[in-house]
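Summary for the steering committee. One of the milestones for this cycle was to obtain a three-dimensional model of the protein with iron/sulfur cluster bound, which we needed before selecting residues for the alanine scan. The sequence and ligand used are listed below.
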Amino acid sequence: MKAAAGLQSKLHYDETFNCVQCGYCLPVCPTYETMKSEVHSPRGRINLVKMLAEDKIKAEDLREPIEKCLGCRACETACPTSVQYGKILEGAKEVLENAEQKSITQKLSESLIFDQMFPSKRWMNTIGYLSWLYQKSGMQKMAQRTGITQFAPLHLGKFESVLPDLPSPAERKNRARLFKAIGSRKVTVGFITGCVMDAIFYETNRNTIDLLTKAGAAVLIPVNQTCCGALHAHAGKIADAKLLAKRNIEAFEKEKTDYIVNNAGGCGATLLEYGELFKGDIEWERSAQAFSNKVRDISQVLSELDGLSFTKEVNGTITFQPSCHMINVQKVKNEPLSLLKQVKSKGYREMNDKERCCGSAGIYNIVNYEDSMEILDSKMKNVKETNTSIIVTANPGCLLQMKLGIQREGLEKSVRAVHLVDLLVEAGAVSK
Amino acid sequence: MELLMEEIRSIIPSDQIFTSLADRYSYSYDASFGSYLPEVVIQVKNKEEISSLLKLANTFNIPVYPRGQGTSLSGGPLPVKGGMVLDMSQWNGNLKIYPDDLVAVVSPGVLTASINQEAEKFGLMYPPDPSSAHVSTIGGNLAENSGGPRGLKYGVTKDYVIGLEVVTPEGEIIRTGGKTIKNVTGYDLTKLIVGSEGTLGIITEATLKLVPKPPASKTMMAVFDDLVQSGQAISKILTSGILPAKMEIMDQSSIIAVENYQPLGLPIDAEAILLIELDGHPLAIEEEMKKIEVIFKGFESVKVKIAENQDEAQSYWKARKLVSPAIVKIKPTKVSEDATVPRSKIPDMFQKLKEIREKYDIHLVVFGHAGDGNLHPNIICDKRDTEEMIRVEKAVEEIFKAAVELGGTLSGEHGIGTLKAPFMEMELGAAGLDMMKRIKKIWDPNNILNPGKIFPEEGQKLVLRE
Ligand SMILES: Cc1cc2nc3c(=O)[nH]c(=O)nc-3n(C[C@H](O)[C@H](O)[C@H](O)COP(=O)(O)OP(=O)(O)OC[C@H]3O[C@@H](n4cnc5c(N)ncnc54)[C@H](O)[C@@H]3O)c2cc1C
Ligand code: SF4
Ligand code: SF4
């Protein structure tokens, strides 16, 4: 019996035919490396999607292989025939999401995470406030009782211990909406503050604005912006992702900006794919594409403006852990490195396989904790070989993960992880 | 089957046994055509496990299919009769270089490119370089006797194997050859097993010969307005006392496909491009390159460009590398053949291929290893289009006929597997094929190991439809 045509199109059955099963994607896939079987390889996953579309297997047979995929899309970059793995993966996730019989508690906790927490500024701010309170007052019990750690039940405690210092609620509330360029204005950019980024890495956002203005950009923060929807899309909740995307598109359409800038590799990739997300949607496709065309990573804008010089030497040797989505989806590769190389330090050393995913991957490290840690351990082996003292990252998820990796290896005394933006500020960035 | 599974579980750790439907489907294919569901997949990690499994298989009369990374283009590891797939790809723990003996000893799942990488640390080189080297296992390369662009000067996989450890189809563990470069003790079973496509034994360890890494290399691109002259030029160079490391050809359809895929500024009016790499002592290759240039100048239809540096050389080779991905943009299915002809017959083969392209109205692209006559006629089609696939099947048959008639062979490097089995008699004759069958029968009386490969079944035809 043939599966319904609707299912085949949702699963992007036609796209699976572009896979010639050459296996070129196997060596770059982190889960194939750690899980050591074809079901956890890109080629295997694509084949299983095809098998489901042909009704040869059941949705449940596909679930584990798809859930264990990081979505890092290194396979896409390696593929000689440009199979659009990301599209196949999202289609599969959507089908699995719809096929699943969920328990009531599962539904409730998911709704809390996806419908309320991530799209909500208020929630994210609350997390920011509470973490601040937790840090400043040492009231561990209180933070736990409020339940932040309980919906993603698994190992949040571990992540909590690597969170950075947070701003006070007053400071958070009083952030301006418009920042003038220092010196002559070369461009106006809209800034995507991001949800996790703004909640936990508030300081990095402040530094981002600082760098942009010093480099000659006026920075706008549209108030109605919301979560980019990456986590929703990756969880197969396409309808939710679209709702969030629409709110962002509307929020930025109102402003006159040259670029829409972000400092989180994963979010950037999703924003860049809004155009694709609304493909064929007469009402939204054009504005979504216009939005995507403006999306840039902070490193791209800083490189283009070329308005900064760096006055202080950073104490330590540096290695760089790029974000997968930045490399494989946004195709931003050289800009962060060229910025890093302008920084005075004790030297830059490249790690082996630097482009391999660190295992953070959205909320992968929360829902697939053990698998993620295996991938992280293999990354940390390469980090250790560089013998450097600073790991620079370009995405909040990777940053937390690397901090966790440092802790796992007991390297807290000798190694630290920082966001690229923070390092640039530390390096004494001033207007040229 | 239940009883067999019980026995398997008593000798193999459970995390190495895969029985779920998803797992079985994941080992049901390779990079060629068709998908066959095995009953069980076992990831083997040592020779004792393999030996016990093969003994069991003989008792229960169940077929066993060794599999590397499944990059075969001829159907080599497909479990066409169900049974057990032995996944060798995770057995990659041993890769040791003995620089003083110029040999490497490796376990079967080691990736081919890693051997060369490791050898380079000692100033040595493992020359065989199939395009799939960074994905395929050495076990798979040995079984297929893989070749690559460097085959012209350095030969193919079989020229670098001096010793093997093998589990026979009946489960005995034997050693062939050894660690010495010279060895004439008895029949050369090493060479018999290399290229036997996993039908005569399962390779569990290999001792490979290494050579000194040449200190320098140089690349040239030659553009031809006339295809026949490109063939003449190839012969002229090879008879002039120069042996390039690589000599690759792309025909006009490949050039156009690459330009459409990723514009590199290739001349789309040209009938062919020849890429030549020389390696050796820097002064020697400088001299030889000049000689080649002079030879080419003797042909009026040629323009030559010598790469000034490594980056420029890389960009020339990039064009060649892009052929495969470029052509599948035209249509998704690629039937990749590797019919090989004597070098002097390359122009005739090109002519034949042109006729076949027109006769069957198919999209046929030709590129390949010009220096050793190993062409890759690739037919670009869509396997969902049954009517087209029937024409393709007929065209493939004619390609083989043409190659054999020109004194060539069905396969220069991809092996026979399931796809070329129907044409074996055409090349070998009935008695020749029978001799091979008899060897198989003696080694594997119960026909346990990789059945359905190399030897055609009664009335077997080429089928590229599922
Ligand atoms: C894009 C692409 C490019 C390619 N380029 C080339 C090329 O340039 N030159 C070339 O020669 N080939 C090429 N190939 C074909 C293929 O890569 C080779 O045939 C390769 O040797 C197969 O290795 P594998 O590990 O994938 O083995 P598999 O495909 O898994 O198996 C191949 C055969 O080996 C047997 N086998 C595997 N392991 C063992 C073992 N340990 N003992 C006994 N038998 C075993 C299997 O039963 C099967 O018959 C290419 C393939 C692709 C997809
Ligand atoms: S590299 Fe691309 S074509 Fe090859 S197996 Fe992977 S997805 Fe398929
Ligand atoms: S997205 Fe990453 S983890 Fe998933 S199949 Fe591709 S390479 Fe592997």
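Key point for the committee: Residues 369-386 of chain A form the longest helix (18 residues).
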